[in-house]
């Protein structure tokens, strides 16, 4: 059976206050198990102008926040409000 595992990283647990930092997905198949490194994956991080979050959530995502702070071109990082998902975009 094929299925998709989703992972959503946020800056806290209150949707009206905290932000989505990253969305990732991996496609798995129970009939053909493969190492994680060989599976199809999707990842998009969202760069915000300012981050609001709990201390625990921000600490847990420190490496991701450092990557976002570098402000280097990266196809896996989308600006806030125009994040491209798969082949399309949302605004």
TrEMBL record:
<dbReference type="InterPro" id="IPR012337">
    <property type="entry name" value="RNaseH-like_sf"/>
</dbReference>
<dbReference type="InterPro" id="IPR036397">
    <property type="entry name" value="RNaseH_sf"/>
</dbReference>
<dbReference type="GO" id="GO:0003676">
    <property type="term" value="F:nucleic acid binding"/>
</dbReference>
<protein>
    <recommendedName>
        <fullName>3'-5' exonuclease</fullName>
    </recommendedName>
</protein>
């Amino acid at each position: 059976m094929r299925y998709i595992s989703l992972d959503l990283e946020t800056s806290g647990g209150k949707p009206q206050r905290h932000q989505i930092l990253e969305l990732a997905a991996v496609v798995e198949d129970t009939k053909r198990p493969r190492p994680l490194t060989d599976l199809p994956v999707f990842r998009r991080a969202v760069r915000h102008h300012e981050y609001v979050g709990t201390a625990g959530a921000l600490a847990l995502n420190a490496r991701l926040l450092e990557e976002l702070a570098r402000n280097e071109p990266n196809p896996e990082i989308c600006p806030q409000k125009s994040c491209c998902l798969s082949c399309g975009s949302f605004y």
